[in-house]
C-alpha cells in the first residue's frame, strides 16, 4: 500500500498573470483511482494540465515514480508513462478510428493490444474505418480512452469522461474504468457526476479556490457526505 507513484508538493500554476493552483499537495498510490471533486473553476482541469506539463508550474514539485518532472515537457512526461484524455477528447477528425488509435507510440509493454481494445470496445471495431467526425460523443470518448490504454501509460489523467453522454454510455465507461483498475493502472479522474464517480474511485480530493480542502476515502463517503455536497454546491 505504500507504493507512491506520484508525489505532488505545493504546486502553484495558472495562465499568464492569473494564478489558479495555490499550493496543491497530494500523494497517489500505485493502482489507485483518485477523483478530484469541486465546483466549476476551482482548478481541477488545471491540476491535470500541470501534471501533464501542458502548462508550467510556477513553483512546487511533481515526482513520478521517484523522478522529478518539473523541468520536463509534456512529451517527455508521456514517455515516462503519463497519459491524458482531455475534456475535448482530442480525436483527429480527418483520421479513421484505427488511425487515431495507432497514432501515439507505444511507450511500455503491457498496454492493450489492438485485438484487446476491440474486445473491450466492440463499437470501435465496427467503426474502425470510419472518420473521427462520424463518431458519436460516446464513441469519441471510448476512442480517446482506448488510445491512451494502448500506449501502456501507467498513470492516466481523465478529464470529465462522462460529460454530456447518455446513461448507457456512462455505465460502459464505468466498466472500462474497472478493467483499467484490474490492470493496475493508476488514474486521476476529474468528474462532476459524483454518483458515478463513487462506483469507480478509491479516494476523493475536494478542491476549492485552487487548493485541496478535504480528502475522503470511498468507504467514508456516507459519513462525510455533507462535506462532499458542500464542495460540489455552487
Ligand atoms: N486557457 C485558460 N486561460 C486562462 N484562464 C483559464 C484557462 N483555462 C481555465 N482558466 C481559468 O482557470 C480557472 C480554473 O479552471 P479549471 O478548468 O482548472 O477549473 P475546473 O475546476 O476544472 O472547472 P471546470 O469544470 O469548469 O473545467 C477558471 O477560473 C478558469 O476560467
UniProtKB/TrEMBL annotation:
Pfam families in the cross-refs: ABC_tran
Superkingdom of origin organism: Bacteria
Record's keyword annotation contains Ion transport: no
Position of the signal peptide: none
Residue ranges of domain ABC transporter in the record: 6-234
SUPFAM superfamilies assigned: P-loop containing nucleoside triphosphate hydrolases
Coiled coil: none
InterPro entries, A to Z: AAA+_ATPase (IPR003593), ABC_transporter-like_ATP-bd (IPR003439), ABC_transporter-like_CS (IPR017871), BCAA_Transport_ATP-bd_LivF (IPR052156), P-loop_NTPase (IPR027417)
Molecular function GO terms recorded: ATP binding
UniProt keyword list: Amino-acid transport, ATP-binding, Nucleotide-binding, Transport
Family from the record: Belongs to the ABC transporter superfamily.
The name this protein goes by in its record: ABC transporter ATP-binding protein
